[in-house]
Batch of 3 targets.
Target 1
Amino acid sequence: TVKAFIDSGSNVSAKGNDFVAVSKADGSGTNEQVKGVSVIAESAEDVNVFTANLSGGGKAGIAANVSVNSVKDDTQAYIDGSTINANNNSVDAGQGVRVRAFNKTDTDIKGGGVALGGVGGAGAAVDNTLLENTTKAYINNSTVTSKTGGVDAVSITKEIVHSTVVSGGIGGAVGLAGSAEVVNSNNTNEA
């Protein structure tokens, strides 16, 4: 869980008299120069799974490889129950308020099973990947004031899935093989 927030009746004044570098929170890995208030939450997960199975037998060989992967991230940036820039006198014209959340999940799954048998060989490989990420950027029950820099709430989720699942069955008379890949993506992205 990654959270960046202003809450619980906070009263924040940011006149924006100078620039500060903050993350764009868009997956580019770059910063931008801003004036005012920035609430930024970012998370990144790199999941690498490698599984293999080899089986042999005089008459029959059976190999099975099952991989189950689950990623569940919660990334939130928010202003809740607070006052931002209540007294907006003598502030810089570029003053703004930014609330941004970014989540990236990159999975690389490789799995396989090979069976060798004198008479028959049966190999199977299955991968099940479940992605359940929540990414939110919001302003709730708050009074927020800014100049020409504006007020924005942006939420971005980026999911990358690479999966290779192979199987083999080798036998003198019979060889059977089967592979399956299941990706279940149940993400929430709100701004």
Target 2
Amino acid sequence: LPDNVSELRPPPAATRGASLGISPALYDIFQEEARTHIATLHREFSELVADPSRPTPFAMLRAVHTLAGIAGTVGIAVIRTLGVALEHALLRRETTENPADAESLERVRQAIVALESMADSVAAGHPPETDPDLLDTLDALYPPPAAESAEFPELPGITAETGDAAPALPSCAADASPTDEAPWPEEVQDY
């Protein structure tokens, strides 16, 4: 226990998140959501390790996606970057030849622990630190199957000859009749 009992109390509302440039309201939202999503990552990872041949749980993907998003919203780039890297690695896991690879799963665990540590730093009012090696490792996890081609699929409405053909309008747009009325109020049109 700290010598000073006041260290156990959360900071006053006006200073929460201020040292990181985050408004107190967003800081509180981030803290609550980060704890929830990190707990989900730990729980789902434990289940994944118990049966590594199963697909990546949707709840795990949603948790890391949302954690990265809320970190981006409040401006914590290092958590957002690591979250996105983990999300992409987990998405690639679905198409890899060896999704149960123990070394890869260990890297996923390390990323979850790092996200938790970063969120703890934010909770303590300190900027979180990043691990560039972990980011590089996540980027290399779960390569696509060897049979996959590096070519992009052909998109409907775009040909290799022109490359610039516009896709057809949806039927609702094609049925719309033009009107002489401006779509916005007059004061908006002046901008």
Target 3
Amino acid sequence: STQGVSSAASDVYKRQNPQPGGVAEGDVQPLAAQIAARCPVRRRIPLLFSMQALVLQLFHEGHAFMPRRVGLEDFRRRHWLSGESARQKLASDNGWMAGLLEVFEQAALPVQLGLCTAAYPGGSISAADFTALKSALLESLDTALQTQGPFEVVVLLLHGALSAAAQTDPESDLLQACLLYTSPSPRDATL
């Protein structure tokens, strides 16, 4: 389940970025075992198909006190990557993506990277630019499904503080669009 993956990724992040009184490295249960324990389909029929995951990322931290809106070009300036170029840039930065990729590697689950983009913190995103970002994410998802799918796991890695004009909850809107796009009956979603 994606909840198991996000929990395991959180464990990797905590191990790589220890806080005073935090979890010591020796206290963390092996992450691959955690993933395998939460993946009953793979345990029952491991030879019938090869499981793989797709990861998409959109990070932006919106602030109401910032007068300047963040636009599509702000995302393109920071990073707008996919595939191996995204893996090379993001797998070594000790952030959430690096932790997530490490978890999948320990679970021997191949990972494809769709659109991975971010903008530095700033004001909210205009309605037009949010629509363009959403379209770009869905296009990346569609391309991956057509050329590299099927995927047992699709992870939409979001910051949690996205702010967009005319949207009360833009991250839920993105998640819902991806869920509707990938499956008529999604099994699991974690916010």
